[in-house]
């Protein structure tokens, strides 16, 4: 207990100790996070800001290839991709010798090497009921024998499916095949931690991030400034698979075989205000900015291109397809828009045909989006770039469809009545924000064009989501950001048994469900793609969704930043980035 108390006291001081002074020749990456970080514990953190830091401080078994598209896994602390048994249940990894945790008093002066047993401990830790890990769902019930951990948690409780038969061999056995299991092992949550550190600082692991990643914590002033220093013991070496893109090939040529990271330190600020981020970038306080705020697009972009004065400074604008789908869903159990009868299908189809994607993209998204043809965005496994929705934007056809299916009665003000003669009014929830109000007006215009009255009910998004899970919301625009880059992560949003969870539309169609169940057992390939095509057709036949857009993030970077390529899944690319210090100094002096 005395040791633990002393260590905790040392921690409280170490977070605020000054970093080594920056030397003129040091390569310093200047960055921001858009929200404040929380505790730096891989098992607990789930917000994007904290995950951005964790993936630089800690190491999972696998990482994503920096250049391969679609997103592809490669070994990180493993020597190679695992061997997998013929039944798809047993994964055997070989841990790369010579990987060490960064120094900490918990190791009592010795250099602490990572072993397979450390990964066993780290994965077991996700089951700790005291942590309430938001990532436990990835493993619970899937690891053979993990019921023992759920019955009585303890790091020494034996689990048949988590074994370290020798110092560098890790064996994981599943209860059933899972085609996405390796993606789980590339998340920050499955990163390796040291038991000595966790036990030396009880309840304080999030304040004492000791990992094996390319960076280590240098300074941490909460919700203000974080400094990461290059880990002198980093064993990461660059390897990637570039495509045909010349920029990818140039990055690969510049980095191939080189030790990571390439910069000496990363200085991170918390910048929650849109204006502060944009002005900070333009003032060279940040080396790059991802996702230009919609409200500030016109500051830097004109007619779809970077403004000439910024281009003259060497600033580069790129558009990145985020693995995200915006969609408007309709509650299939709602008495107005729900159900599977022909008249309700016709109503939802007409609503879908009334949506003007071109106006949405041009006016609201400022050109930084593409039309969603299906639930899948580009760069997700199973995405078909040739697929086109059979439901067009066609208000005239939508009006004819409604007339044909009994919605031809009109109120004195011209709005349609339902087939039973009663007034027809749709209620769409929306966020109580400026953006929410702009989207309300777009939908009002689209639906009024087919004679349908709509009213809007504004609330906080968190409250709308709660009500959606209870089935009390009729219609709402939502979006899904990928958890892992596979089609299953999106098509499960329409799977009947997921109603009340991610399936807000409460779509429950046997023909869809059976295809989804077959598809989730298949690996990426022609047979699964055929099922995905049929699921798309069912989606467009019954219209529980109106697929809207996939965001194209407008990203800006300064010319002194090298090796930049945004990854579709990982939050940061800091380990790969390099800085031309002389060019930065020259251009910043010239600007000022």
TrEMBL record:
Localization terms from the record: Cell envelope
MF GO annotations: peptide transmembrane transporter activity
Gene Ontology, cellular component aspect: ATP-binding cassette (ABC) transporter complex; outer membrane-bounded periplasmic space
The keyword Transport appears for this protein: yes
Keyword Ubl conjugation: no
One of the protein's GO biological processes: peptide transport
Domain of life: Bacteria
Record keywords, A-Z: Signal, Transport
Main localization (coarse): other
Signal peptide (UniProt feature, chain positions): 1-24
Domain Solute-binding protein family: start-end pairs: 73-499
Similarity annotation: Belongs to the bacterial solute-binding protein 5 family.
PANTHER family named in the record: PERIPLASMIC BINDING COMPONENT OF ABC TRANSPORTER (PTHR30290), PERIPLASMIC OLIGOPEPTIDE-BINDING PROTEIN-RELATED (PTHR30290:SF10)
Designated name of the protein: ABC-type transport system substrate-binding protein
């Amino acid at each position: 207990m005395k040791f633990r108390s002393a260590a905790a006291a040392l921690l409280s001081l170490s977070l605020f100790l000054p970093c080594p002074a920056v030397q003129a020749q040091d390569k310093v990456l200047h960055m921001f996070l858009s929200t404040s970080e929380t505790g730096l514990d891989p098992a607990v953190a789930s917000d994007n800001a904290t995950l951005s830091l964790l993936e630089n401080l800690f190491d999972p078994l696998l990482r994503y290839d920096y250049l391969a598209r679609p997103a592809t896994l490669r070994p990180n602390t493993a020597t190679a991709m695992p061997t997998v048994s013929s039944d798809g249940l047993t994964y055997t990894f070989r841990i790369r010798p010579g990987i060490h945790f960064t120094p900490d008093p918990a190791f009592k002066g010795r250099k602490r090497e990572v072993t397979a047993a450390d990964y066993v401990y780290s994965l077991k830790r996700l089951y700790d009921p005291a942590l309430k890990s938001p990532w436990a769902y990835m493993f619970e019930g899937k690891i053979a024998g993990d019921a023992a951990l759920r019955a009585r948690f303890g790091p020494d409780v034996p689990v048949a499916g988590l074994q370290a038969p020798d110092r560098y061999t890790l064996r994981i056995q599943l209860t059933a095949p899972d085609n996405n299991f390796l993606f789980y092992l590339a998340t920050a949550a499955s990163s390796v931690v040291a038991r000595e550190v966790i036990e030396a600082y009880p309840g304080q692991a999030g304040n004492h991030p000791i990992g094996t990643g390319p960076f280590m914590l240098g300074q941490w002033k909460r919700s203000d400034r974080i400094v990461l220093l290059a880990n002198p013991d980093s064993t990461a070496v660059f390897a990637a698979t570039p495509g045909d893109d010349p920029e990818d090939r140039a990055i690969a040529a510049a980095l191939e075989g080189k030790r990571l990271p390439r910069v000496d330190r990363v200085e991170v600020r918390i910048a929650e205000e849109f204006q502060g981020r944009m002005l900070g970038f333009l003032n060279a306080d940040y080396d790059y900015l991802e996702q230009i705020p919609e409200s500030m697009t016109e500051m830097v972009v004109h007619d779809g291109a970077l403004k000439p004065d910024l281009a003259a400074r060497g600033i580069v604008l790129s558009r990145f397809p985020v693995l995200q789908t915006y969609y408007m869903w309709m509650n299939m159990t709602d008495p107005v828009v729900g159900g599977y009868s022909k008249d309700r299908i016709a109503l939802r189809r007409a609503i879908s045909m009334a949506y003007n994607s071109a106006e949405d993209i041009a006016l609201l998204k400022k050109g930084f989006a593409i039309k969603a043809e299906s639930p899948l965005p580009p760069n997700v496994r199973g995405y078909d770039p040739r697929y086109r929705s059979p439901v067009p934007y066609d208000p005239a056809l939508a009006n004819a469809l409604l007339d044909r299916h009994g919605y031809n009665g009109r109120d004195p003000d011209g709005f349609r009545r339902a087939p039973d003669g009663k007034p027809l009014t749709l209620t769409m929830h929306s966020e109580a924000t400026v953006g929410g109000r702009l989207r309300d007006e777009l939908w009002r215009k689209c639906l009024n064009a087919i004679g349908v009255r709509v009213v809007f009910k504004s609330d906080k998004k968190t409250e709308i989501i709660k009500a959606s899970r209870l089935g009390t919301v009729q219609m709402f625009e939502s979006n899904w950001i990928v958890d892992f880059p596979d089609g299953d992560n999106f098509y499960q949003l329409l799977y009947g048994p997921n109603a009340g969870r991610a399936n807000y539309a409460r779509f429950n169609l046997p023909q869809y469900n059976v295809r989804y169940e077959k598809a989730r057992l298949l690996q990426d390939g022609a047979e699964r793609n055929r099922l995905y095509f049929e699921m798309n057709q069912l989606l467009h036949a019954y219209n529980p969704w109106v697929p809207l857009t996939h965001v194209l993030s407008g990203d800006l970077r300064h010319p002194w930043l090298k090796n930049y390529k945004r990854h579709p899944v990982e939050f940061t690319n800091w380990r790969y980035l390099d800085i031309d210090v002389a060019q930065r100094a020259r251009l910043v002096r010239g600007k000022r």
